[in-house]
Specification:
This protein is of the alpha/beta class. It has helices at residues 4-7, 15-25, 40-46, 71-80, 94-103, 119-130, 150-159; strands at residues 30-34, 52-56, 87-90, 108-113, 133-141, 164-165, 172-173. It has one domain (4-173): Rossmann fold (3-Layer(aba) Sandwich). The longest helix is centred in the last third of the chain and has 12 residues, at 119-130. The radius of gyration is 15 Å and the shape is globular.
Length: 177
């Protein structure tokens, strides 16, 4: 797995988590990442897939911010992902982007949720994006079990009946491990 560049990008994703995402992405062609911030996990996935990583984020500057688009945060993302041709940033709220993809019948073979972390936000993301999963897709997300974000665990337990937790990470996944 190619993780060198991803490890240089600021973020909260630990190396074992990046390893999982890179490995999962290596067998996928259409990947949606919900919440990309500065591009750490996007870089790990994009440099390990032959497909495209669609990065959906408002780039508001903080996970739970109510601010609008932040030029500086988006500039950081673009700087960190420069010259990675298979990253496509989409500066929209998650559910709006999902509605557009749904309208055109688009499906993904991997969806990674790491956007809003409060219960209602995670529920909205899961509900919106699970409709866009191709058969045998990987549906996964970050911050499961993190005491700072109890809404993530609550939403996953409620809506993803057969999820697994990737060992030594805070990633939940529908992939058989």
């Amino acid at each position: 797995m190619n993780l060198e560049r991803a490890l240089t990008v600021e973020g909260w994703m630990y190396e074992p988590e990046l390893e999982y995402l890179a490995h999962a992405a290596s067998t996928r062609k259409r990947i949606a990442e919900i919440g990309s911030w500065k591009g750490r996990s996007a870089t790990a996935m994009a440099l390990n897939t032959e497909g495209i990583v669609f990065c959906i984020d408002t780039w508001s500057g903080h996970l739970e911010s109510s601010e609008h688009f932040s030029v500086d945060c988006f500039k950081d993302f673009l700087k960190n992902t420069k010259d990675i041709p298979n990253i496509l940033p989409i500066p929209l709220e998650s559910t709006h982007a999902a509605a557009i993809f749904k309208r055109y019948g688009f499906q993904f073979d991997m969806v990674f949720i790491d956007g809003l972390h409060h219960f209602e936000g995670v529920v909205d993301d899961i509900m919106a994006w699970r409709e866009l999963l191709a058969p045998d897709a990987i549906f996964c997300g970050h911050d499961y079990g993190d005491e700072n974000w109890p809404g993530v665990e609550k939403a996953v337990k409620l809506l993803i009946p057969n999820f697994h937790r990737v060992p030594e990470t805070n990633i939940w996944t529908t992939e058989e491990l």
